[in-house]
Each structure stands twice: as C-alpha cells, then as structure tokens.
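pls ignore typos typing on phone
alpha-D-glucopyranuronic acid + seq
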Amino acid sequence: MSFINETLASRGLPELPFDPDPEKNRQRIVDILSENIYGRTPDFKSEVSGKLTYRHEKCFAGHGKHYHYSLTVTTPGGDFSFPLRLSVPNTDKKVPLIVYISFAIDNPSGMIPEEEIVSRGVAVARLVYTDIAADSREDGFRSGIAPLFPRRADADDNWGAIGMWAWAASRSLDFLLTLGLFDEEKIAVMGHSRLGKTALWCGAQDTRFRYVLSNNAGCSGDALTRGKVGEQIADITRVFPYWFCEKYASYAGDAIAGMPFDQHFLLAAAAPRHVAVGASSLDIWADPESEYLCCKAASAAWEKLGLTGFIAPDDRYPKVGESFDDGHIAFHLREGEHSPCRADWNAYIDFLLK
Ligand code: GCU
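k done
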C-alpha cells in the first residue's frame, strides 16, 4: 500500500454510498448532507427574471462585454431581488461560463482577474453572497432571503446560510441560461473558502453545473474532517453556527466517530461531472493535505462508474506549484496564502477548457 493510501486508511472514513445509477447516488448523498451538515434546501419552483441595469459593449479594449442585471426570483414567501454582473468574451460562439459566488461587488484584492478570464474565452458571472443572506450570527436569519422561509422550530435540519448562498447561484444560472450565450457542457460554479463550501454544495444539488470549482474551502468543505489539522467542527460551529443546520454541531469533538459522512461525500456528489480543488501551501487552517486526501477518497465515486476519478502520478502528494488534473477530479497546490489568485483561476480554466 502506498504512503498516501495508508494515510487515507488511517482516517477511518465512512464508505461512500454507491448505486450504479449516478443520479440515485447523488440524491442519496445530498440527502445525507442535507440532514447532517448544510440543512434542507426548500423544494419549490421559482420563476426568475432579469432586468438589464447597465451595459458596456466594448469592455476590455473591445474584447469583451459587461452587463449588470437585477434578478427577481419568485418564492412562496414573496419576490426576492439581487444583482448579478456578467462579463462575456466578444464572440458569436457559445462560451464556457463560470458562476462565481463572490465576497464583494468590487474587486479590491484581485480575487477575480476578470479581463484575463474573458481573454481566455470564458464568461464570468458573479453574485455577491451578502446580497442573498447576511454573513452574521447577529442577523439571526432576519435579512435577505432568510425571512422568506420560516424556520421549523422543532427541526435540526433547517438550511443555513451556505444553503441560501448556494440556492442563489442556481437561480442565477436559471437566468443566465435564458441568454443562450453559453456552452452547457462547460458551465461551472466557483467560490473561495466559505464560498468554496457553498460552490461545492451548490454543485452537489444542481447538475447543470458540469464543473464544480472549490478554492481553499477547507473545514466542512473540501478537506476531510477526520484526521484534519487546523479548523475543526467545534471551531466552525462555534463561530459560524448559522452556516449549517442545527445538527452539525453535534458532531464536534469525539462525536465525529459517529458522523455518517465525511467531506469526500460532498465531492462525490459531483460524479460523473467534474470537480476541482485548489489548496494553498500556507493555508494550515484549511489543511492542504486533508484537501488532497479528500480528492483521493472521493475518487471511488467515479471509478465505480468506470470513469477516471483522481489521478495522482506515482500516488504521491503534489509539490508546491503542481496541478494534477488528468481525471474528473483535479487538485492543485499553489504557493502562498489563503486567497484566490491568478494561478488558481488559470488552473481552473485549464481544467474547464480541457
Ligand atoms: C474562516 C473560517 C473558514 C472559512 C474562512 C473564509 O477562517 O474559519 O472555515 O473558510 O473563514 O471563508 O475565509
């Protein structure tokens, strides 16, 4: 047994559910994760409409177009509106699309190198997560879409903010698909850190996203929880309980042994589609090794379907700067701190354009 497989075996992970029908398999995993970690996404049909509020047809020196929309979504509790921004390459061909769940509307820290993305022939749409639901414990689910969905007092599987943010990425896609601009086999959802967790949960539930791109999502996202260093369930549920359903906190500490899933389930819910994980070498809180092992552990979901899962040359851990992206699961280890940067975007776009 290789060193990596031994390390993985020592984590004592629960086995992935398996059904030869990938759709049944996915639904089973989504059910487990809804019940135990992210809560249940309300099940209803909504209509989404978009109003154009700004257009710039000769953006990026004429190589792209940029649009602002205000989307309105119908829900049983009333209509809800939020802004969406879209940059598209200047071409008549259908293009790949990344729906980016963003921290901010502006781009102060270079988190989205928009011109470079467009110059690679890829469109990027971004919604801002706090336009959907507050990222604040004090808010108590009183703002954004939260109050449109009354919380069930006796339940421990009410959806948390991650579920709400993920839901809005899907509603954004409802609208974006009406534009007829995109190659539907090359549609991705992406996020960083808490929004990487969100992108993974969105991709698990919405199969129209053919690629799920998770940057530095770490604890309760793209890193295995069992055997993880850095952030633990006890930490994340103490500071950010409202990201999850009520039940998740009950797995803190030794109770983790009874947790019926680990985070490889979340990646496996993307099978038979594509998923990419980006880790940062200095991001000890997220734990790059546990992010890598999560890809290894999820691989079985693809392999059992006769597809390539995660391909790690010589079954080894990558060197800093390397990207392993020959299977349906990609992993890259970037030098530096916890943040998305150009190297990450380029790794995801390489994978998307393969
Ligand atoms: C905190 C949190 C992480 C999260 C990160 C982020 O550090 O503990 O789980 O990923 O914030 O979203 O930037």
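The mean pLDDT is 96. Residues 22-38 form the longest helix (17 residues). more later
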